[in-house]
Amino acid sequence: MSKVDGKFSLRQATLNDQENIWKILQQAIERRKLDFSNQWQDGYPNPESIKNDIENNFGFVLEAENEIIGYAAIIDEIEPAYEIIEGQWLSNQKYMVVHRVAVSNKYIGKGIATIIFQEIEKIVISRKIHSIKVDTNFDNIPMLKILDKLSYAYCGEVYFRGSARKAFQKLLI
Q1: What is the CATH number of domain 8-171?
Q2: For residues 49 and 40, what is the distance between their CA atoms, to the nearest angstrom?
Q3: Across the chain, where does the E strand assignment appear?
Q4: Where does the record place the N-acetyltransferase domain (predicted)?
Q5: Does residue 133 contact residue 89 with C-beta atoms inside 8 Å?
């Protein structure tokens, strides 16, 4: 177990970070598998996903003590899968999307994913946007707990790659 001193930095990922990001995502993919989750068991995400995130300025890494300990894609474009929802979004105002949140195995259970989301909220507000949308698999219990803890509202179901996903939204002040 690694000590976390509370000094974190969420920054734009670069192509030099790609290998470290992929290692963290592979760990998260394996954790989902060990949790008997179907999420991320179909070849997604993959190294090409990360490269695309970085090239589109969507990829962000969380660092502590000069070590990459987490990753997330923060997307400031309309998510096509969110255009049709079985349910209702809280609002139809401009939003940012969070995808591919992953934390290094060294830091599991230390609240790092929560910190990633809190830092994302700061970025979103700094861009004068007041809404975040995110989805997760029905069986991704750790993510469902984080979204509940951070007051993301369950809005219904959206579909990705033919599978239903729980969709959430948070309106920011």
Answers
A1: 3.40.630.30
A2: 12
A3: 8-12, 59-64, 67-75, 86-87, 96-103, 131-136, 153-160, 163-171
A4: 8-173
A5: yes
